[in-house]
Amino acid sequence: MIDKIKDYIAEAEAFKAHTKEELEAFRIKFLGKKGVLNDFFAEFKNVAVEHKKEFGQVINNLKKAAEGKVNEIQEALESKEDTAGAYGDLTRPGEPFTVGSRHPISIVKNQIIDIFSTIGFNVSEGPEIEDDWHNFTALNLPEYHPARDMQDTFFIQTNPDVLLRTHTSSVQVRYMEENKPPIRTISPGRVFRNEAISARSHCIFHQIEGLYVDKDVSFADLKQTLLYFTKEMFGKSKIRLRPSYFPFTEPSAEIDIYWGLKTETDYRITKGTGWLEIGGCGMVDPNVLKNCGIDATKYTGFAFGMGVERIAMLQYGIGDIRMFYENDVRFLEQFRASI
Ligand code: DAH
User: Quick check: 157 pLDDT over 80?
Assistant: First the structure.
């Protein structure tokens, strides 16, 4: 009998548990009502008097061993629960946290806004779904004007007065309708044209429109403003205003910057000329001022429009406009900026 109890003591001392359930099973087996210990206590009265002392001691040892084990494992399990708890192991290394990056179009747009805001231009916006008046007619492009074909337009089939704006020049009109000179504003935004998608053109892209209306605004002001911009944006200090035609400006010009011919890429993107076109500009046509309720005998103004994708492609050396809209994270992750 005593040997049997000693076996139980050894078993109790060697016992290990990883869960509460295992521990409870152990407790019931040794300390439960019908457990090993109670059986041995029940045996006690049958033990011969001369063995009672030794028997009593061994049973007590078994009791201490079993109780000690239960307490020890219980404490260990509870302290594990404290750190594991509802949140898991709080000492484990954190989940890696990936920070997003701004889209290159947003970065370039913000740079342009920054440059113009230092010379007093504010930012204005207009709707992408426009009406005929703001996109065409008010800009000196009446119905049947051939220049409407310069920009392939997405119309709403059931209502030809509703269209997706083809340029941000529509915001000029809205701004002049609502504000009196002096006006100095730039209008960034998305524009839409029904064009085949290729490496160089897309049916959705971004423009930035600029407008300055005040007394005595001259072509020289336009030229200096654009020169300041190209210096700040590209670090280039030579521009050329090439005579052109836009219905909403008179005279009109294309803005070329001298990019240089240092590298093979310079040759490729400037087609060997060194010059790059970045937008259009001109003196606001008096008809446009009149259409927007501004006295064309008192005020003059200049306007310009530039493609944001084109500028971003130049800044970052991107050869295909479609990359901006594919949203491939391997492409987007390369752009980091503080603005
Ligand atoms: N709206 C023209 C376009 O999308 C760009 C433009 C040219 C805007 C001349 C202007 C301007 O304000 O004066 O092609």
Answer: no
Close Cβ partners of 8 (under 8 Å, ≥ 6 residues apart): 30, 36, 62
Residue-level pLDDT at 45? 82
For residue 207, give the ligand 1 atom closest to its CA.
4
Q: Are residues 318 and 271 in the same domain?
A: yes
pTM of the model as a whole: 0.73
Closest residue by Cα to atom 4, ligand 1, is: 167
Pocket of ligand 1 from Cβ distances under 6 Å: 167, 169, 209, 246, 249, 280-282, 303-305
Task: Verify that 112 and 261 share a domain, yes or no.
Answer: yes
Mean pLDDT, rounded, for 301-306:
98
State the binding site.
250
3-state secondary structure of 60: helix
Strands (E), the chain: 122-123, 129-131, 155-156, 159-164, 183-192, 204-214, 239-246, 249-258, 275-284, 300-307
Region 80-101: mean pLDDT is 76
Structurally, how many domains does the chain consist of? Answer: 2
Alpha carbons 208 and 133: distance in angstroms, whole number: 20
Instruction: Give the distance (Å) from ligand 1 centre to CA of residue 246.
Output: 7
Please indicate, yes or no, if residue 22 is contained in any of the structural domains.
Answer: yes
Mutate to test the pocket of ligand 1, among 167, 212, 285, 309 (most ligand atoms within 8 A of CB): 167
Q: List the CATH number of the domain containing 132.
A: 3.30.930.10
Query: What's the rounded mean pLDDT across residues 83-103?
Result: 79
Q: Which of 23, 56, 87 is the last residue of a domain?
A: 87
- Per the annotation, binding residues for Mg(2+) are 250
Nearest atom of ligand 1 to the alpha carbon of 169: 1
